[in-house]
Design brief:
Blueprint (H helix, E strand, L loop, with lengths): L3 H11 L4 H4 L4 E7 L4 E5 L2 E5 L6 H14 L10 E5 L5 E5 L9 E5 L8 H6 L5 H12 L4 E5 L5 H8 L9 E5 L11 E5 L13 H8 L6 E4 L6 H9 L7 E5 L3 H12 L8 H11 L2 E7 L5 E13 L4 E15 L5 E7 L7 H6 L6 H15 L2
Parallel strand pairs: 7-11, 7-12, 8-9, 8-10, 10-11
Antiparallel strand pairs: 1-2, 1-6, 2-3, 4-5, 5-6, 12-13, 13-14, 14-15
Helix pairs in contact: 1-3, 8-9, 8-10, 9-10
Length: about 375
């Protein structure tokens, strides 16, 4: 058997045209659009680079070796490839005939500087007051969904928020492909697995989630909700498994709820929407919305609380606790903004105070001004 280090070195040799980008900590993604067109993402911005593969055969050779590294096979009958590079970077590729003009390859890198909450505050991705609110709500085991578009910083924020989990808790992490690196000591990582060529041996997120409930978790973290496992998570959240964290793709806090409904209905359980919606309202406590702005920065735009579900109207009660206010563009083209409290206090305020906790003073000041404003003519 070839040692992993030798295999890794050999594989990187096949990716020689982009190797220095894969080793550059400032590069977050490498995109290969056929052998002659390569883009990278750096500081949230795309740029085309001059390097290229000698020909399409060289790119095919690199992908076949990458497939072999993760125990898969690619050809005309199997033109899709997902897996990890030796350094942990995530690779996704679409080969002809599904990708005419390709192969098309995207390699998402996860190395470099760990984005701590302190660092996120420094770059104005989140405010100190917002972090303090999340600190106390995570302490009392509120369930948190982090939502955003592709490459908006969902996983990075989830990693950073893991700092707020108490040290004496056991955290079970479930992912399709290992991307998270929680800042905790007691972490159990579970990873799904696709079936082999005959379709056997598959282990799904749902399989892992169900067994995780028997592994004495204090908290369960699902890297990303994509399908029917959403229903399992919702039902676990409503049956005493508090403090869960997960991410999903959605562009606004209200879209999170419709996305959860859609994914939960993908499960093999015929649950009427009228019965599902109250469960979602009971399960999800907090939605943290992130976005990537035009200037390449990634920031928290909303922290919203799901307060209730009104059955007669079929509507959820969603309240923004923090919202980012846009303030213009500076001379360097950077978008200026501030994440500010809205004056709405969380419905769990009494529970927080009973446990010796409280919300930031800025939230209480904003709530005071909001009350005065409502009284004014």
């Amino acid at each position: 058997m070839i040692p992993d280090a030798v295999f890794a070195s050999t594989l990187m040799g096949f990716f020689a045209p982009v190797r220095h980008y894969l080793e550059d900590p400032t590069v977050t993604e490498v995109m290969i659009n056929g052998p002659g067109v390569i883009y990278i993402e750096r500081s949230g911005k795309l740029e085309r680079v001059p390097e290229s593969f000698p020909n399409v055969k060289a790119l095919y050779a690199a992908l076949r070796n990458a497939a072999q590294f993760v125990g898969k096979h690619v050809d005309d009958n199997n033109p899709l490839l997902e897996g990890r590079m030796p350094d942990g970077s995530r690779l996704a590729a679409v080969l002809p005939p599904s990708g005419p003009g390709g192969p098309y390859v995207a390699i998402r890198r996860f190395g470099g500087e760990a984005l701590t909450l302190s660092r996120l505050i420094d770059v104005d991705a989140i405010s100190e007051d917002a972090v303090e609110l999340l600190r106390v709500l995570i302490a009392i085991k509120r369930n948190v969904v982090i939502a955003g578009g592709t490459s908006s910083g969902k996983s990075s924020l989830l990693n950073a928020l893991s700092e707020l989990i108490p040290d004496d808790e056991r955290v079970i992490v479930i992912e399709d492909s290992k991307e998270l690196a929680l800042m905790r000591e007691h972490v159990v990582t579970l990873e799904s697995r696709p079936g082999d060529a005959s379709g056997t041996g598959a282990i799904s997120i749902r399989d892992l989630f169900r067994i995780s409930l028997r592994m004495r978790p204090d908290r369960i973290v699902i890297g990303e909700l994509r399908g029917g496992e959403a229903l399992d998570l919702v039902q676990a959240m409503t049956s005493g498994h508090g403090g869960c964290l997960t991410t999903l793709h959605a562009t606004h806090p209200r879209d999170v709820l419709s996305r959860l409904e859609t994914m939960a209905m993908m499960a093999d359980v015929e649950l009427p929407l009228a019965a599902l919606r109250p469960q979602i309202a009971s399960a999800v406590d907090l939605i943290v919305q992130v976005a990537r702005f035009r200037d390449g920065t990634r920031k928290v735009t909303h922290i919203s609380e799901l307060e209730f579900y009104d059955a007669p109207s079929g509507k959820y009660g969603l309240a923004d606790l923090f919202e980012r206010q846009l303030e213009g563009i500076d001379p360097d083209g950077r978008i200026q903004s501030s994440l500010l409290p809205t004056g709405v206090l969380p419905s769990t305020l009494a529970q927080l105070r009973a446990e010796g906790l409280d919300v930031p003073d800025a939230m209480k000041d904003a709530a005071h001004h909001r009350r005065l404003g409502h009284r004014s003519p």
